[in-house]
Amino acid sequence: MSASEFPKGDLLKGKRGLIMGVANKNSIAWAIARQLHAQGAELGFTYVGEALERRVRPLVESIGADLLVECDVTSDQSMDDTFRVIEDKWGGLDFLVHSIAFADKDALKGSFVENTSREAFRTAMDVSAFSFVDAANRASKLMQGGGSMITLTYLGSERVIPNYNVMGVAKAALEASTRYIARDLGPKGIRVNAISAGAIKTLSLGGISGARSLLSEGKAWAPMRENTDPVGVAGAALYLLSDLGKSCTGETHHVDAGFHIVGMPEDDAGAE
Ligand code: NAD
Questions:
Q1: What would the pLDDT profile of 191-217 be if each residue is shown by its tens digit?
Q2: Could you give the domains of the chain?
Q3: Does ligand 1 lie within 6 Å of residue 154's CB atom?
Q4: Whose CA is nearest to atom 40 of ligand 1?
Q5: pTM score, two decimals?
Q6: Which of 38, 78, 3, 4 is nearest to 241 (CA)?
């Protein structure tokens, strides 16, 4: 991905946003961050763990951002600290990007009904769905002049996808949460949407058993016969987070080369 693929402009000039979920240069949140930066936004970032800090800090510095906070979304203390830093440093916030998910690897393979323990269910829901409710609530308090928020989801919430299992259930909760949050924050001029991205090669995707076939089958079935380009996801994020997306809220927008519309593959759609 080259910087020239992210159109430059002033759509977010003077706007400040928090990006939660960059792990490395392949993260979807990083593609989104680069697009928002190219449109003039001032960005702050969260990361979790020392190992990831070593990857994230150079990226953040490469775009001249200086707000980088450690934040584990499962900890109230960590969330308190993060949003206190934002308030102290910026005094307000215009947008939020939530690009966070986690489930126990053992639950992301084989039988959903057999492999989903209480603990695996709780963890997936906490990290991948509740964290957006919590972050949205905290961010909204800083969005006194209105704002916009997005989260990232996947088709496994609507349809059965092999091995996606408990994460599909968590994504369904995340999408429903998006609608309820949109209802609550609409009167405050805050828009809340989800982007349902097609499979993209990232650290998280690697945690799902058979991830390679999510990519190869995804490409073979998709009407566009291509994998989802993070640049397209970043473009959708720009639309939803800027005034281009005016009047759009509570929506789950698919950016997946059309994969979600297909009920049965064409005869020539053999996976590689
Ligand atoms: P990624 O691994 O780069 O990003 C996932 C992020 O979640 C990481 O930055 C990780 O640190 C963070 N995270 C996990 N547990 C956390 C915790 N307790 N506290 C704070 N942060 C935590 O992978 P990605 O593919 O860019 O994933 C980003 C989002 O996009 C996820 O919600 C994922 O489900 C979604 N998504 C991914 C794909 C895909 O194919 N890669 C497709 C659709 C949606």
A1: 999 999 999 999 999 999 888 999 999
A2: 7-258 (3.40.50.720)
A3: yes
A4: 199
A5: 0.97
A6: 38
